Amino acid sequence: MEYNTAICRGIPTSLIENGLRLENNHSPIDEALMRRQHDQYTDALKKCGMKVIQLPADETLPDCVFTEDAAVVVGKKAVLTNQGHPARRAEAKEMRKALEQAGVEVFDMTEEPDSHVDGGDVLFTGSEIFIGDSKRSNKAGAEFLRKSFGIPVHQIKVDEGLHLKSNCSMLGLNKIIISNDKDGKSMARGIIAAAENSYTFVFVPDIKASNVVSFNKTVFIPAGYPKSREIIEDNIAKDIEIVELGNTELSKVDGCLTCCSVLINV
Ligand SMILES: NC(=O)NCCC[C@H](N)C(=O)O
Ligand SMILES: [Zn+2]
Description:
- This protein has helices spanning about 15-20, 30-45, 90-100, 140-150, 180-195, 225-235; strands at about 5-10, 50-55, 70-75, 75-80, 105-110, 120-125, 130-135, 155, 170, 175-180, 200-205, 215, 220, 240-245, 260-265.
- The protein is α/β, with parallel strands linked by helices.
- The protein has one domain (about 5-265): L-arginine/glycine Amidinotransferase, Chain A (5-stranded Propeller).
- The strands form 5 sheets. It has a 3-stranded mixed β-sheet with strand order 2-1-15, with helices on both faces. Strands 3-4-5 form a 3-stranded mixed β-sheet, sandwiched between helices. The chain has a 3-stranded mixed β-sheet with strand order 6-7-8, with helices on both faces.
- The chain is globular and about 40 Å long.
- Citrulline binds near residues 63, 66, 68 and 255.
- Citrulline binds near residues 66, 88, 119, 255 and 256.
- Keywords: Hydrolase.
- InterPro entries: DDAH-like (IPR033199).
């Protein structure tokens, strides 16, 4: 898909101690490396010609760098989400300003206390949305997206991971990259059963490599997964450039590559 603008946010130091983590994840974060990796990410977006709207870090919001969760954008419309975890809901305030600055029409889910969506659960294929039925996103949230965007929205069960896109993402037009494990396979079955369009699935052996940022003629993939990289190379057009980005540190707080930006075409 084509995009020209990205909303990113600085990393508060509070992420290191107070960032939300899945229970099985306790490795300590290397702060300097984390900041370097995030700078490389925003630099790579700029190098690809994207305008980056950079929101300030907020120490009271440890997970605010993961901007993807605070908004869902489809064309010129955006839903400001009411995130699943209460500690993250106040991220909406700065996100609203950024969306308004970008010039999209904002639909405010934060006014509906029973609707919840994390953007990390939302896989927008260009014509329809698959949304994780997860700890963070619920049916009322899915319904809010359907009403706001006027496109089909299908809930897909998320078992182990945090979000739907912890195990999959768009690799290209109607092409979904997805992890070749039990969770990825069950998500693929759910997507096939619910889909209105047909999709090609590209299965990769590394769960983390199933989350890529594909836009214009570029695909960002996490560094360090050579087997998955080969499969990706074999399944994209020859004129698409692969950019490997280190994501070892934010990954310790369950962040993947899509999490750190909201992509918009204005
Ligand atoms: N879109 C995403 O995958 N976001 C990752 C959020 C990680 C953060 N530590 C959280 O648990 O909310
Ligand atoms: Zn993510």
